[in-house]
Amino acid sequence: MADLDQKDDSWEELAAERARLNRSLRRFELHHGELLNAECSMDPGPDVVYQCELEHLRELCDLTLRAMRKETGLAELFGDEEGTWAPHQLG
Q1: Which end of the chain is more exposed for a tag (fewer CB within 10 A), N or C?
Q2: CA distances from 10 to 70, 76, 87 (A)
């Protein structure tokens, strides 16, 4: 569910969006009881938003990896074309 417009973003732009998502996810994790028991209703509910943001984060990480590999030319460091990271090649 990563935004189709994000496929051409730089890795810095993608990393900024990842940081925003991490803050939002962490806020839910710290306050999930309060959010789920709140008097006001949200549609979709906070748990659904959390699940969607987790999926977005997963896809965003894939896009970030591809952008980093493309911008640095370090495919051997950041993994193969399938987007797998190869930490054993760091040193």
Answers
A1: C
A2: 9, 19, 22
